[in-house]
Specification:
Blueprint: E1 2-3, H1 9-22, E2 34-40, E3 45-49, H2 62-72, E4 80-87, H3 97-107, E5 112-117, E6 121-126, H4 127-130, H5 141-146
Parallel strand pairs: 4-5
Antiparallel strand pairs: 1-6, 2-3, 2-4, 5-6
The structure holds 2'-deoxyuridine (DUR).
Residues 27, 30, 32, 34, 50, 52, 59, 61-63, 93, 95-96, 99 line the site of 2'-deoxyuridine.
Length: 166
């Protein structure tokens, strides 16, 4: 863990974007607000915040929100540089397992991840380090990962996982 002051301006800017996203969280049940900001290779920043629901199982985390917003905005799997996440935790926030899996697949194992808290603590890690032994889309094989040959909706090139960029 390191003090935020020791980071580069571009890293601090992404943490600040995550902090701003956190202000927009919808967390009336846990009252635990989380923000995320994802920097794409094209320089765009995609924000995410947790969004909760009275049907608790439908709650969505900030990290997955950032990735899903990015994909909906036209970013592609593997074309991300850095993710920042922030929450009101004693030390740097620890993403949940589901978010680690999504980070690993859409960001790739080398994605830089900045985990912050509101007091200026930051941990620098990678999506790969956060999920050793991750489930790999390659395990699904050709039929599972890319759809049956000739399948227009899921065929080759339509939605290749990060490990097989378009
Ligand atoms: O890394 C995390 C951890 C938790 N949450 C959310 C999920 C839920 O809305 C609330 C409490 O778990 O915080 C996130 O968004 N990201």
């Amino acid at each position: 863990m390191t003090a935020a002051s020791q980071f580069r301006p571009d890293q601090l800017a992404l943490i600040e974007a995550a902090r701003a996203a956190r202000e927009r969280a919808h967390a009336p049940y846990s009252r635990f607000r989380v923000g995320a900001a994802l920097l794409g290779a094209d320089g765009r920043v995609h924000a995410g915040c947790n969004v909760e629901n009275a049907s608790y199982g439908l709650c969505n985390c900030a990290e997955r929100g950032a990735f899903f917003n990015a994909i909906a905005a036209g970013a592609r799997a593997g074309d991300f540089i850095r993710l920042a996440v922030i929450g009101a935790t004693p030390g740097p926030i620890a993403p949940c397992g589901a978010c680690r899996q999504v980070m690993h697949e859409l960001g790739g194992p080398g994605l830089e991840v900045l985990l912050a808290n509101l007091d200026g603590a930051v941990a620098v890690t990678t999506a790969g380090a956060l999920l050793p032994g991750a489930f790999d889309p390659a395990a699904l094989g050709a039929a599972g990962a890319r759809g049956a040959p000739g399948d227009a909706a899921t065929g080759a090139g339509a939605d290749a996982p990060a490990a097989r960029r378009d």
